[in-house]
User: What shape does this take?
Amino acid sequence: MQGILGQRIRELRIKKGITQEKLGQMVGMTAQGISKWERGASPDAELLPKIADVLGVTIDSLFDCSREESIESTVTKELSIMEPDDAFKRAFGLCWSIEMGLTGKNSIKDRFSYKMIESLDDEYGNEFYSRLIYDSGIVTARLSKDMRYFFLMPEPENGAGDYLGDARELAGIFRILGNENNLRILEYLYGRKNTHASLKLIVDKTGINEKTTLECMNELCSIGLTKCFEVETDKEIIKTYTYENAHVILPLLIIARELKGKKQLNFVTLNDRKKPLI
Assistant: This one.
C-alpha cells in the first residue's frame, strides 16, 4: 500500500507540473519529505486530505488509480444536477476558488474565503473587485452584491494586440455603441423576450422616428448586435428584428458603465506583469 501511495503522489505531482519542493510548501513538508513518500514512506493520515486537495483528486484515488476522478469531471457532475440558480451561485464560488488559487499565495487563499465575500456589502454602495494581472494572463472578478462576474483570459500566444486588430475598425464599433439612439433600441430589445419586433413596434416603444430607427437598425445589424428578418403577409413584406450576441455586448455595456460608476474598492489585487498588455 505504501508503494502504491508514493507512486500515485509522484504520478499526480508530475501530471500537475509541481516540483517536490512546491508540493512540500503546499502541504507543509520539505522536499526531502516528499521524496521519502515517493520512495515508499507513508504520509501522516492527517495530511491526506490536504495532499488530495492540492493534487486535485479524492483521498480514495490516492490509493487506487482506477478510482481517480478529475476536478473538471467532479465540477461538471455537481453543477449538472443543481437547479440553475443554485448552479450559478456555486459556479461563482468555484470561480473565486480559481482566483485565489492563481494568486499562488496560501496566506491570501486562507484569508479571503468565498464565505466572506458572500456577505460582502458596503453601506455607501461601493463596488468591490479582485484583479490579478500576470504575464500568463489576466483575471478579474466583481464581487459586489448587486453585480457579480468573473473573467479569465490566458495570455494569447502572440499577445492580445493581433486579435484586437485595426484601431479604426474598433473605433467604428464604439461609434455605433456611442450613439444614444442605438443604446435606447438595445435597451428596449433586451428588456423583452427575444422575439421578433417590427420596425413600427420599435418606433412606438422607443419614441425614435422611423427614419432614424431604420438607420440605427442597419448599424446594429452591421456589427451583429441585431438580426433582420423579412416576414410576408397577405398585404406586404415587413421587416422584423431580434437581438444577437447578447453574451458579448451585455458584459461590455456593464463594464462600460463601471468606467464612470461608484468608487471601486480593490479586494485582493496583484499586478506582477512584466510584458505590455497588448
Notes: The chain has a mean pLDDT of 87.
